[in-house]
Amino acid sequence: MSGSGDTQSMAGAVKEQVVYQNPLLFLKVWELQRNNVHIGRWHYHKEVEFLAIREGRKTLYTKDETIALKTGDVYMVGSSQLHRSDRTADPLCYVVLQVNLTQYLDQTTLPFLHGFSELTTPLDELNYLFTTIPEASSAAYAYIMQIYDEMQAKRKGYEMAISIAVKQLMLLLVRYDKRGLLQGSDDIEIIRLKPVLHYVDTHIAEKITVDDVCGLLNLSYHYFVKYFKKIMGVTFLDYVNFKRIKIAECMLLTQDLSIVEVGCSVGIPNVAQFYKMFKRYNHCSPKEFRLRLREKSGSEEDTIA
């Protein structure tokens, strides 16, 4: 999780800017071999991250859990999800794959745009595949190693080989997902919602209402409400609130802003409402969230590992 390119440092965490090894592939993959991995700072990036442990043990922290990884294990960190590593005194070798999966969506994968875009559910929740289905874990491990080997060798057509392997990895997630987290749409109607989703992203600090967006699709208020819920699986209001809280989580760790300022920045100026909404998604207050994750970071300012 280190060595992925330039970073922009902020208070408490780092927004990592991944530098792609090939502009056609939208990914970076490399191997780390260390006898001592220092405590890494909390960081996040828009790319999904896969870890494949070749040898040794590694402890990974996310905002929700502590994960102990060992030889042969695979773990996936969703887009823009906070995570960091812990110290180990043992020899350790693992491969890191950071990839923008949305760039690999085409006409055949668009029915799964909702899932792979992580519009409401982070891909982290699919890690149950790797802990409960051995064949899924071993297959994912093999695809990650194939991508790494192809990038290292750069044989003729390696771009095609890597692109195919990434899609095979995505197909694996779809095929083994027994919980239906990546359940595809019956059609590609979700594409029609893209202007609405873009509007939410670009106006997140403002008041957003159904009236603001239903006109973008030339739909009536009541039809839009039903249409959005049918396609996205959540109400429009729940989607907007989800996006606001996910942004607030990162702001609490990456910027020296007060709780009130963070709430205002994500369009929830009423501090009581912000606390209530934040606790709905994190089961703790914004202040408790910030303290808990910063305490877990420790006082060391080591490089990301």
List the helices and strands and how they pair.
Elements: E1 7-9, E2 13-16, E3 27-34, E4 42-44, E5 48-55, E6 57-62, E7 66-70, E8 74-77, E9 83-85, E10 92-99, H1 113-116, H2 128-132, H3 134-153, H4 158-176, H5 194-202, H6 210-214, H7 221-232, H8 236-254, H9 259-265, H10 271-282, H11 286-297
Parallel strand pairs: 2-4
Antiparallel strand pairs: 1-2, 3-10, 5-8, 5-10, 6-7, 6-9
Helix pairs in contact: 3-4
What does this structure look like?
The protein is of the alpha+beta class. Helix content is 41%, strand content 17%. The chain contains eleven helices and ten strands. The chain has helices at 113-116, 128-132, 134-153, 158-176, 194-202, 210-214, 221-232, 236-254, 259-265, 271-282, 286-297, and strands at 7-9, 13-16, 27-34, 42-44, 48-55, 57-62, 66-70, 74-77, 83-85, 92-99. It has a four-stranded antiparallel β-sheet, covered by helices on one side. Strands 1-2-4 form a three-stranded mixed β-sheet. Strands 7-6-9 form a three-stranded antiparallel β-sheet, with no helix packed on it. α3 runs antiparallel to α4 (158-176). The radius of gyration is 20 Å and the shape is globular.
Summarize the structure.
The protein has about 300 residues and is of the alpha+beta class. Helices cover about 40% and strands about 15% of the residues.
